Amino acid sequence: MGKYVRKLYFCRICDKSHPVKIPRDYAENQKRYPFVFFTIHKYDGDSEEHLDKKEKDIIATLYIDKNYAIRDVDVAWEDSSANIISEYDTQKLVGFLIDHVNDLQDKYDSLMEKYAILLESSKEKSNKSDNNNS
After folding, report:
1. How many CA atoms does the CB half-sphere of 4 hold within 13 Å?
2. CA distance linking residue 40 with residue 28, whole number of Å
3. Which of 66, 57, 62 is nearest to 20 (CA)?
4. Which of 1, 58, 89, 118 is surrounded by the most beta carbons within 10 Å?
């Protein structure tokens, strides 16, 4: 089995089918189906209505079921002010950041314990030195 599932989806703007590669692990790790997958392609239709938009980006929102069948497709012209990230990717990113912060906190706590031990040891040496000099 490959890393990707290859599918075709139909774009209602271009009036053509386009290929898409869906990472197999992305599709297998979904909490519910159908899940949302975003892809972008260039307009390559020949409609008189969109002649001025040749090679403009189109965002396709694919709704994919557990068997990798594309159940529905929404398409829209790309809006450079839009930021698209799936809920799954957001959760994955936040989880990674939380794990990283917790790891850094553990390292900080460990360093503080070592520092406290060194500080205490330094004070004891200083006190012994002061007592011997008296």
Report:
1. 7
2. 22
3. 62
4. 58
